[in-house]
């Protein structure tokens, strides 16, 4: 049975564990600095397993030794965004937490593929890579799968079609320089641009970019977790089952698409050794310009994170 460690047994970590257990993807270790949270949630989820007929095990701990030999490590530790707080406000606090978690977890599982979830996402990916010296193809940020799911849902909702009729993609950053791709999005096989008015597409793009904040404003305490948890599960599934599925993920680019030395959300194939290749969707000038703008913004955040390491 594959072994999946989730660090941070908060809302996102425990919801990811829930989806992963429901899909029986592997044995789960939930680790949290607050031991009771990890043990309690793992026990609660274990007690659901007979009902959902899942044969995985779920253990809670604060001891990194119990994560030894994991195939996948998911880092959700940190604090979540509060109303009025931007992802970059989180930078200072989460840089320290994520660097510490990466240094403690990765040596116990040198072959693991690491999925970074803590925000600000692209900078936390860099903090993980830099503080662990793990291979770049095994440090992958979860943002694009979540942003894509939001874009996808809003399109299906607007057109009043089942979500299964839509095929969407969002790349770029997990923030203001997110790049939803209407030209590469299809509804029942037809380009989105043919089936939806430009104003409606623009409105949905805006809503997608603000998708995280919209939830934060409703909840008031804490941020989204159902869709983030499912988006993590989608990546874990592709990695554990070595499907090579192409998903938008944040990866360290070294010249792919002509962009280098930055974590950026791009379409990559995912398998058991991490991300394999960046898939060039033949981006047009406008799309490349948006990606380059996103890269420039992440570079600034990475520099700030670097100064905190
Ligand atoms: N080691 C292990 N766990 C830690 C550490 C640490 N050093 N520091 C904090 N944690 C744990 C907290 O105890 C808490 O249980 O991380 C968990 C975070 O959970 P929540 O506060 O519920 O936050 P959540 O909504 O899950 O978001 C986690 O994911 O989407 C991002 O922006 C979000 O960065 C945030 C992260």
Structure report:
By secondary structure, the protein is α/β, with parallel strands linked by helices. Helices cover 44% and strands 21% of the residues. A hairpin with a 2-residue loop joins strand 13 and strand 14. The radius of gyration is 18 Å and the shape is globular. The site of adenosine-5-diphosphoribose has 28 residues, from helix 1 and helix 3.
What topology emerges from the helices and strands here?
Layout: E1 3-7, H1 11-22, E2 27-31, H2 35-52, E3 58-61, E4 72-75, H3 91-105, E5 113-116, H4 121-132, E6 139-141, H5 144-159, E7 166-167, E8 170-172, E9 178-180, E10 186-187, E11 190-191, H6 192-195, H7 198-209, H8 211-219, H9 226-240, E12 245-254, E13 260-271, E14 274-278, H10 285-308
Helix pairs in contact: 1-2, 1-9, 3-4, 3-10, 4-10, 5-7, 5-9
Residues 7-13, 32-34, 37, 76-81, 94, 97, 100-101, 117-119, 222-223, 225, 228 line the site of adenosine-5-diphosphoribose.
- Total beta-strand segments: 14
CATH class of the largest domain: Alpha Beta
Distance between termini? 36 Å
Shape category: globular
Mean pLDDT: 96
Instruction: Give me the secondary-structure category.
Output: alpha/beta
The neighbouring-strand order within the major sheet is 3-2-1-4-5-6
Percentage of residues in DSSP E strands: 15-25%
- CATH domain fold name of the largest domain: L-2-Hydroxyisocaproate Dehydrogenase, Chain A, domain 2
Give the topology string: H per helix, E per strand.
EHEHEEHEHEHEEEEEHHHHEEEH
* Ligands, ions, cofactors: adenosine-5-diphosphoribose
Named CATH architecture of the largest domain: Alpha-Beta Complex
Rg for CA atoms: 18 Å
Report on the biggest sheet.
Answer: 6 strands, parallel
Low-confidence stretches: none
The structural domain count equals: 2
Helix content: 40-55%
Q: Quaternary arrangement of the chains shown?
A: single chain
